[in-house]
Specification:
The protein is α/β, with parallel strands linked by helices. It has 13 helices and 8 strands. The protein has a single domain, classed as 3-Layer(aba) Sandwich (Rossmann fold). Helix 4 packs across helix 10. The longest helix has 17 residues.
Length: 286
């Protein structure tokens, strides 16, 4: 079954939210990759229920059902998360960022010190313009980062068309994605649901167009604007040493810059190792 988002009203608009795990459990806000949406955390449902954890996966501005904001940067996101937590009547919570969601988890840990109880980043993108470079990513992300930054209107057309075609032919879209994967990631893909459910993390991002995905890439293409030494909550960085999409060096550099951070390296794991190790990650956050 394809995960369905719900709309949560916040000041100035709405946020599309996906819910997983135990509704009465300890809250963890999970931040999706790029180009993706909250539907990409469907595989956390079982591990979260086993640990009495409530996983709340919001779509970023303009993604899925969330209201648009074309000019936000990574440093702006904690205020949005705080507003969403208020709307859900949640005071304190943990944060988890995966891939392109990693920088947003870092920002929340730095800017919401009184509310974030623990933070985890798995296969997280490094800070472009500081310790990371676009040419370190795999080909598709390199191209999209450049296109979304230099020609947003063209990027909206390209990504919008890709989302439409993936929705019409999910099996073909998944096979195209698999061409960029290494063996460990292909092994993870083989354990996932049917193609239409698996590619929902991509197709659901375009429920109201491609503008939000383009804005997300643009935010990630520049420095985050947060002070990493302000982070005081327990902080863990997880990364596979065979990751071909985001190099291990990004995780190593992040862990070195956050005071007291712990680095966990998964030998032989690729970018999708996060799915295999979901329970391990959640253990650090409850």
């Amino acid at each position: 079954m394809i995960p369905k988002p719900r709309e949560v009203k916040v000041t100035g608009g709405v946020v599309g939210v996906y819910d997983y795990g135990d509704p009465a459990g300890s809250p963890v806000f999970a931040f999706h990759g790029t180009p993706s949406c909250g539907a990409g955390f469907d595989w956390t449902d079982g591990p979260a229920r086993e640990r009495a954890i409530r996983v709340i996966a919001p779509d970023r501005p303009g993604v899925g059902l969330t209201s648009r904001d074309h000019s936000y940067i990574v440093a702006d996101y904690p205020a949005m998360v705080g507003a969403l937590a208020d709307a859900l009547d949640i005071d304190r919570f943990a944060v988890w960022g995966y891939s392109g969601g990693g920088p947003y988890a870092v920002a929340c840990a730095a800017r919401l010190p009184g509310r974030v109880t623990a933070a985890a980043v798995a296969a997280g993108m490094g800070e472009l313009g500081v310790w990371a470079k676009p040419d370190e990513f795999e080909r598709t992300d390199r191209q999209l980062l450049a296109l979304c930054t230099k020609a947003p209107p063209v990027a909206r057309v390209v990504l919008g068309a890709a989302g439409f075609l993936a929705r019409r032919a999910p099996k073909t879209a998944l096979k195209s994605f698999e061409k960029e994967l290494i063996a460990p990631d292909l092994a993870v893909i083989a354990t996932l649901p049917p193609p239409d459910e698996t590619v929902a993390l991509f197709t659901q991002a375009f429920l109201r167009g491609a503008s939000g995905v383009v804005a997300d890439y643009r935010a990630l293409a520049q420095p985050w604007g947060v002070a990493l030494d302000a982070i005081t909550a327990p902080f863990t960085v997880f990364h596979g040493d065979a990751d071909s999409m985001v190099p291990l060096r990004h995780g190593e550099e992040l862990a070195a810059r956050v005071p007291g951070a712990r680095l966990v390296v998964w030998p032989g794991e690729g970018h999708l190792g996060t799915i295999t190790h979901a329970g391990e990650i959640l253990e650090t956050l409850r």
